[in-house]
Amino acid sequence: MTRPRGTTVAIASGVVLATTGGLLTAATPASAAVTCASPVFKRTFYANTAFSGTPKRTDCDSVINENWGTRAPGYKGMPADNFGVRWSVTRDFGSGGPFTFAASSRDGIRVYLDGVRKVDLWKDVSKTVSKTVNVTIPKGKHSLRVDFVNWKGAANVKFAYAPRTSAAVDKVKPLVPAGAAVSYSTKTASTKVGWAKNKEMDLAGYRVYRRLKGTSFPTKPIATTTSTSYTDTTVPKDGNVYYYEVRAYDKAGNVSSGTADLGITTVDRTAPAAPKGVEDNWVLGSPDTITLHWHSNTEPDLAGYRVYRSTSSPVALTAENRLTGDKLSPGYYSGPLPQTGDIYHYVVTAVDTHGNESAPSGTAVYYTRDRTGPVDTALSLRATESEAGVTLTWDASEWTSDDFAGYAIYRSRQPRTAPAVRERVGQGVKGTSFTDAAPPPGVTYYSVVALDHNGNGGTPSEEVVITVVGNTTAPAAVTGLAAVPKENGVTLSWDASSAPDLDHYLVLRGSLVDGQWTYIPVKNPLDFKPWRITSTTFHDAVPADGQQVRYGVVAVDQYGNQLTPDTGAAVIDVTELDLRPTAPPATGAPLAYLSTHASGLITWALSSAEHENGSPVSGFAIHRWNPRTGTFDLIGTEPEDASSTGHWVDDTQPAATTVYYRVTVLYADGTESGASEAVAVTR
User: Fold this and answer.
1) Would you tell me which CATH number, out of the four given (3.40.190.10, 2.20.25.90, 2.60.40.10, 3.60.15.10), belongs to the domain 278-367?
2) pTM beyond 0.70, yes or no
């Protein structure tokens, strides 16, 4: 800021205007505290050369470049000779490095870095003197102070500092940019990278790098900028993870290290390749059905395929032309070919997990016969529910074809606008009503279609939707219930239920407790839940021990309705065969448990490791009941392995019967314990 000596500065209410960073700001009087934003200097005027006493003025100065001539600085109380001016600032030099200090003055000037004198031209001179020095400034914040005095005569002063940017001199890398962050917009599929501005005075700019997860950063950046942000609009739209880093570089070509990896996951808008091989499908004549085959795509995010059909080419990829949902690999489609006399064109597209759809494949072409459906259409379709089921009624068609064969009734879980499975529940209906006796519960859509004698359908009726509750009537009791006792259990059989809504059967096993029969469902050993039987026979694998039991068989419909033995379900009494041993009862061995399996596996565990007389266990003896001889035959021995447990596999176990086993404990003194008994029902 240059002001000739004697220049009058306008003062209003004790406030003057000073330059701060190139802008005019209000300079406060010397008596008030003055704060100057770095890198602007704080400037203080003294009416002496010792920089002592109360300053005459304190303000902010962005450039040290003054020429007062022989006049005093334009502040009240400042003399023309023997005055001093001090500039001071603390600033962040970033990574630091080599700098030049250029000073010139008339009269004296001294420059300090962190209190250490770097320039010393301190004498009364008759002309301007200059000096330039090279200094190295460490990274971070440092203070600069410039002292100027004028003893007498003309006064001028100039000081500037700047980084040395020659590559031969400056070897200091910039600091890593701070505050780096990324944000990804799925709407624009772009990444915004932002960071804080570096403090280096020789900074030339920033380089932004991008890499795919699992790869290294390339040598070439995706962008070079002097800004503190960059928006990457070229990041691939493939659903992968990409990392960014920012590096600062200076005018000497030095490059900082990169920021920490900043990761984003992109939106996938890259469609798979069009399936190949569809155009190779063809067949002679006019088939009723077609099967398309194509080569499977190899994209890792492939979800499936869509098949489109049209009577015109090229095939438009519209909802009306689409035949399938997203069919999964392998690559094929099979479906009916409408016999309308038209030429049908088929194409296939591939779809990934993000919904991106490929271009259509090549076209497969098929010729059809003319099988036009009737003009009959059911009108004003209505639906009501009762215990009999869902009854549909409609108004007769306004027009009738000669080959009208009757109406077909369809139901579905979704409206026909969705790619839903539609089940035909009735056909050949000549009147205007139909009762669907056993629809599954839930939201159900019905439609009625007129058919001709060749099975061609006319225009479907409007759909009617009804929420099916289901009836509350249990299926009738099963008939023909029979029970046959066998060596390995009881085999039950019964007549098939005629209930249209039958879902499964339950077999109940009853036991007589205090004169009352109680029943529990026979459970599936795989999940321990009641066995849901769909055939009309069942074998209950239980030991043939002569018990008298009562079985019940219950038909259960899809609504859960079912009878019980108390409300009329079919029951039957049966006495099991008695294959129990006629030998004296087992006296008990010192075993904690003994178990058998239909596979022939016998396992046990000791309850005591030695005889009561102190003799240790040496092994085990396995016996099997022989009904022909009326004895328990020894079928094997197993030595003791010090684990207190043992097992044996009966490889000669009889099939489809009830087998009784006894195990005894052998001792080292030659004695043998009593026996423990277990039973197995074999397949």
Assistant:
1) 2.60.40.10
2) no
Name, in order, each residue with C-beta under 8 angstroms of 22's C-beta and a sequence gap of 6 or more: 62
Residue 327 burial (C-beta neighbours within 10 Å; 0-12, 13-18, 19+)? middle
Instruction: Tokens 């005894």: give the residue.
Output: 664
DSSP H or E segment with residue 450: strand 442-452
SS3 233: coil
Counted residue by residue, the chain has a size of 683
pLDDT value of residue 27: 41
Angle CA 332–326–408, to nearest 5: 85
Cis amide leading into 314 (omega within 30) = yes
* Domain 181-265: top CATH class: mainly beta
At 329 the pLDDT is 66
DSSP 140: S
Q: What pLDDT band is residue 640 in, cutting at 50, 70 and 90?
A: confident
Tokens standing for residue 326: 């997203």
pLDDT in tens, 98-119: 999 999 999 999 999 999 999 9
Q: Quick one: which of 210, 216, 349, 207 has its CA closest to 266?
A: 210
The structure tokens listed for 439 are 């629809």
Between CA 616 and CA 596 the distance in angstroms is 25
Find tokens 């102190």 and name the residue: 614
Task: Sketch the domain layout of the chain as residue ranges.
Answer: 16-163, 181-265, 278-367, 379-468, 482-575, 591-681
